[in-house]
Structure formats: structure tokens, C-alpha cells
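Possible regression after last week's pipeline update?

I re-ran a chain I had predicted before the update to compare outputs. Posting the input and the new output here so someone can diff against the archived version. Not blocking, just want to make sure nothing changed silently.
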Amino acid sequence: MTPTLHSKVTKPIQTVGIIAKTRLQKASAAVCDLADWLAARGIDIIVEINTARIINREGIATCTRDNLPTAADLILVLGGDGTLLGVAGCVARTTSDVPVLAVNFGSLGFLTEITLPELYQSLESVLAGTAGIDERQMLRSKVIRNNETVADRIVLNDVVLTKAALSNIIDFAITFGDQFVMRSRADGLIISSPTGSTAYNLAAGGPIVHPTIDALLVTPIAPHTLTNRPIVIPTTTPIRVVPSLGGPHQAAYVSFDGQFGFELTSDDNITVERASRPLRVVRSESRSYFAVLREKLKWGER
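New output (post-update):
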């Protein structure tokens, strides 16, 4: 499915799931106020079990984070981008297309672009069926070792391959379908979605790509040659990366959205392709994507 910025919340909202950043005590009052506001409108709530521990309120239904996508018609995330990335992974592991309304309690909050003062206005729009939805492309990545799948993850931002702290630089062979792309000698490699283009990819010198573009971004981390540049490729074919770890002082790791990772072995095959379903995120009514770039990243300032 090609990402779009023009869908709406069409399913009636009967149950709202709420999850806050772990140990985010200042979210306690917000969750309690939300519970009262939703109850006054006949909406049920279900609170993620760790979030329920910080609000000190009895009689509220709870469930685990993994079960939240199938228990609610809307997920309300209170926290930063990391909290949203964790929820995105949970949604991806189900068949649910539940929309997510993310409210920024963090410092930057590029993905969680809705602010706390905008929360109730955004909720009103969702309940009325007029809220806009961003359908953000997600990526599916597998790690194949000795013909066995040792990892199969879906990410919103990126798959990152990095060398260990004391390791020499790593040689990565990159293939697009049956076409050899390049051999990159670098500290690492970032394969990101357009949504992830403003995350680690941007810090490593990669391009900003609008989230509606159907593409994969491949960005070397500190490459050992001036000619090794980021590349944007279509999602028509999976990309495959094989690290060469022949020396005694070479070690590399893979991480998925910064939420999960492990050490690689030589000749592991890491494949990345577009996931079958996007993440549906409630869009801020008060600012465009470019306004978020200007506000959060000071993009275009002189």
C-alpha cells in the first residue's frame, strides 16, 4: 500500500487504549483527566498495565502493551518518539489497523507532533470522524543465519547495522534484488523508511524524504571513502546486506528502531523491504509536515 495523507478515521471509536512513557509521572494527571473526559462521552478506556501503575486509580480496565492494538479502536500515546516506536512495533505484530494518536511529552517529539494543549481538539476530531490520518510506511526486516531466520521484525523508522565500540570498520555488501549495489566500508549502515529519514539517517548525513514517498533510504555511517553516499531506492524489491566479519577485531550489531537488537555473525543476510501494512497516525490539524520540519528541526532557517 502506498502511503497517503488523505484517509480518515471511519470506524466508530468505542474504546480508547492509553499508554504512557514508562515512569512518566507527569502523565498521571493527564491520564486521569482523559478517563473522565472520555467517560462523559460514553467512551470506554483501557490502560496499558505499566501506565496504570503511575495513575493510582482503581476501577480502570488494563491490558498488556502487546494486547492493546486489538483491545482498542484508538491508541493514545503519551510520551516521546521512543514510546511511539514501541507501540508501532506492537501494532505491526497484529492484524489490527488501529489508528494511533501520539501526544508529545518528550524533548523533540518529531513523530509525536501533537502537543498536550492540542490533545482534546484532536480527540474531538477523531470521535467526529473528521481527523486526518497519515499512513506511514513501515519496513520488515529479517536476519537469515545458516538458512534459518533468527529475527523477523517490523519497524517504523530504521534498521541500523553498526560496528562494536572497539571494532575495526566493517565491509558491508549491499544488493538490490539480483543487482549488486555497492560494497561499503564504514562504521555502519542505516536502512530507513521515509518516516525514519529525520531520525538517525538525518544525523548521519542522509536526505530528508517526505513520508508519502514510497522508498527505502540507505545511508552509510562514517564511510571510509568520500564517494560512498546515501542512496534512495524504490521498495519494489527487498534490499539485502551481508557484513564481512573476518578479522579478530571486527564485531557488528543490528538494531530495529532502537527497540531490539543483537550481535551479527559473518555472512548473516539482513533483508529489508516494505511491510504489508502502514501505521495509521492521527495528523495534527494545526501544522503541516513542513511546519513540523521548521519547528522541530529548524529546517530552512538562515
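Follow-up from reviewer: compared with the archived run. The first strand starts at residue 7 and ends at 8. Marking as no regression found.
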